[in-house]
Amino acid sequence: MIFKDRFKDKVMILTGAARGIGRATALRAAQEGAKMVLADRLEEQGEETLKMIRDAGGEGIFLPLDLSIEENAQTLVQKAVETYGRVDICVNNAGVMGNPNPVHLLPKEDVDYTFANNFYTVYFCCKYELRQFIEQGDGGVIVNNASIAGMTGLEGNPAYNASKHAVNGLTKNLALDYQRYGIRVNSVNPSGTKTPMVEEAYEYVMKKREAAKAAGVDPKEIANMGGRKRMPIIDRQAEPEEQAAAILFLCSDDASYMTGATLQTDGGWTSF
Ligand SMILES: NC(=O)c1ccc[n+]([C@@H]2O[C@H](COP(=O)([O-])OP(=O)(O)OC[C@H]3O[C@@H](n4cnc5c(N)ncnc54)[C@H](O)[C@@H]3O)[C@@H](O)[C@H]2O)c1
Question: What pTM did the predictor assign?
Fold first, then answer.
């Protein structure tokens, strides 16, 4: 292993740990010595991530929590402190694709759902993580998971697009407001990465396109997601482990001069 002890004795909160990028990040952080405080609302798969960590000799706990509920974010931080005495690093990764629809066909409930899970999860977690960091009085690190959709326009899914811009806006604000406490706050901005979220989104769009065709409507009117050809320069999807590597770089002391950064982990997608 390259960075064997990079997070030795560090306590790391990580949300969205049940699968995808969150799981990959949790496994590697634990391998590198972090004590993991994992949360996700998918209980069975979250427990599975914890088992994988323990089987590999790592340490952690898992909490089945819906982090779009403010009290649950508070509980997450409380449990971390009860279990390990402090918190050093927080990765706010939980998120959803939502139901992609252009604005003129987008119900308010779908916007609420997407913001609840993409923006409010991050805001609630940051709120209690920051309070804990301030109380500890010796700095802290936060990495939020946004998206290329937080950097640029992404056709077909305006609620996701806007919610991820909100995550990056919050990240920049937090970097400014909390530097005086020695707290660094950055985000990663992945492009398409091989995770269950992407598989499910693809299936959703395909179903909508078929339904549109059957109804004699131009499918692009209904589900235009991915309709325009914009691709990463590196012509493939990312592996979750490649996103984990970037997240954990920002978590590490190697990124000690980085705050307020919205790091593009997108194979060059947004390099225009
Ligand atoms: N996979 C991609 O292509 C991609 C691209 C850009 C950004 N992202 C972002 O990366 C993050 C991880 O995505 P992923 O691809 O691994 O997706 P995923 O669906 O595989 O994993 C996301 C996890 O977050 C959890 N989650 C969602 N809302 C939650 C809530 N309210 N409370 C608790 N847990 C919750 C889900 O249960 C799931 O386990 C997300 O924020 C996503 O928007 C992913």
Answer: 0.96
